[in-house]
Amino acid sequence: MAEPLLQLSGVHTHIGPYHILHGVDFSIPASQLTVLLGRNGAGKTTTLRTIMGLWQASSGMIRFDGRDITKTSTPDIARAGIGYVPESMAIFTDLTVRENIVLAARSGPVEPARLDWMLGLFPALKRFWNLPAGNLSGGQKQMLAIARAIAEPRRLLLIDEPTKGLAPVMVRSMIEAFKALKASGETILLVEQNFYAASALGDNVIVMDDGRIVHSGAMREMVEDKTLQQRLLGLSLDAHQ
Amino acid sequence: MSTSPTLPLAFDEARKSGGFLSSLLSSDFPRSRILTFILLTILVVLAATPFLFSGSQPLSTAAKICVFIVLVASYDLLLGYTGIVSFAHTMFFGIGGYGIAIALERLGATWSSVAIGLLAALCLSALLAVAIGLLSLRVRAIFFSMITLAVASAMAVLASQLSGITGGEDGLSFQLPFELRPAFKLFSEPVMGVAVNGRLIAYYLLFFVALIMFLLLLRIVNSPFGRVLQAIRENEFRAEALGYRVVAYRTMASVISALIATVAGALIALWLRYNGPDTTLSFSIMIDILLMVVIGGMGTMYGAVIGATLFVLAQSYLQVLMDAASKALAGVPLLPNLVHPDRWLLWLGALFIISVYAFPGGIVGRLRQARQ
Question: Which keywords label this protein (chain B) (predicted)?
Fold first, then answer.
């Protein structure tokens, strides 16, 4: 069996006096979309931030493409090919849309074909190309944040709650964009609370609770198993639709 | 085929295609007609000051404006574009002044002394900026500010104590290279009624160096490097998550800012033919710089031009204006006392409080906002 692209083994994270992650273990296979589910405060965002080195794991190991990145600095993790889209529309509002994209393409100019592909995924950005990103709507900001993460080829994308606070129509276009990203072979770890969106996209699912992994498996199995949904998430897919 | 031909991607794409003026201003236009008019007026008046006004005070005021535009713009790179609050900016200004003063006093009044003094000052400033940056830019902003305040105070004390080298509290007076002395005449006859002597040459040296430094800063803040600084200012974690080494970028910004402040210090020393703790190292100059950046508009560069001009003009002429007003209101009760020239600092303070309230984004921010 091929080695997973990302592997977390017994990862513990403390933030100040608080013990947030309690021995998190999971792996992310290449070219698949894995959804990380869990209620508020379960430790999903902390997991992503720990992978990115924004919070240091106090113990355990994080391996990316066979390399130990547990103590690696955030810029080096990003340079290794991990793109991170934090929650809450994390863009640079003072810069224009173009500048946000160019800034993300650290290794050189964005290739025209890649730009076409990105703007095909998020056509709204084209209209606001030279305007300050702060002027965009919530959904457009989220699109820009994702476009920024894919401005240059990445080995793995970590995306934190992209549909949070978005109107249903915007959630649908976001789902379409992720489907296209998936089809292009990107490896994605997606934190999502919206089970409808998660189930439409995920190949695999990981469920967290109280800083621990409580379930890990194929998304298809979870979608088909209402009892499992009820037990792990407290509601069924039908309720979310 | 690309469907995005209208979406230039490189940061300097517009600069490449926008002609000479766009290239000169790094595509960063004032973006307000009133602002353009004010900036052009300042540029023309500064360029023509020796021919427009007689006497030494207007020329000295114009020279001081030129120097402070550079000094304030270099501080804007730190504060406005990178979000670093440093109190050590006058230290670098002082190093530039002392570099020139010590070299010209010790090595003789030659151009090579100027070059040696400037070079030594630039090296010292770069070293100090790197040391301060690497040691303290990792800590929280408030601690960084405190560290810079401590280092700047230590440097001021050192300059006062090392009187054998720096002249102590008295400072150093020195001779300039012959071509910059008032006795030097480039032409035997006056040009447009003005004698083209060493003083005039010194003024234009200041003017053109200041102009070049300002345009260089404009180029820096509009380069990819400048955009990364702005990104760091807005959210350093997001910038790190994109792969940018925040401490390295901040340190680089500190070094560039320090080097340009050093050049400004060298210019003021050349103009005054003197350097002392009060002229370049004083903490009150640091406060003035902060005020000029805030009044002009942080993170705009053009704010430095407006802020420095207004502030230096107010410092130089507010007393004169108040004297005239006091005399004009001689018969009116209370008012002549209120606008008595001795109370100029009170009015200067009041003016700044009003301007900060009226223009929270600075004058440039307000003018650009009005246009939108």
Answer: Cell membrane, Membrane, Transmembrane, Transmembrane helix
Residue B242 C-alpha, separation from nearest chain A C-alpha, in angstroms: 6
Residue type, B349: G
B86-124 pLDDT per residue, tens:
999 999 999 999 999 999 999 999 999 999 999 999 999
Token digits of residue B365: 């921010």
Chain B residues in contact with A146 (beta carbon < 8 A): none
DSSP run (H or E) holding A28: strand A18-28
Tokens matching residue B123: 């090296």
Q: How far is B52 from chain A (nearest CA, A)?
A: 41
The span from the CA of B140 to the CA of B130, in Å, is 17
Task: Find the DSSP H helices in chain B.
Answer: 13-17, 19-24, 33-52, 56-76, 82, 89-107, 111-136, 141-161, 163-166, 198-221, 224-234, 236-241, 246-272, 283-296, 302-328, 335-338, 344-358, 362-371
**CB contact (8 A) between residue A94 and residue B234:** yes
Using CA atoms, how far apart are residues B266 and B200, in angstroms rounded to an integer?
A: 17
CB contact under 8 A, B235 and A104: no
Tokens of residue B283, six digits: 């903490």
pTM assigned to the model: 0.89
Query: Searching chain B, which residue's CA lies closest to the CA of residue A114?
Result: B2
Q: Which domains does chain A have, with CATH numbers?
A: 6-81+155-240 (3.40.50.300), 92-153 (no CATH)
Closest to A190 in 3D by CA, of A160, A229, A166: A160
Choose among B252, B269, B52, B290: nearest CA to B159. B269
What is the C-alpha to C-alpha distance for residues B62 and B49, in angstroms, rounded to an integer? Answer: 7
* Predicted ipTM of the assembly: 0.87
Coil, strand or helix: which one is A85?
A: strand
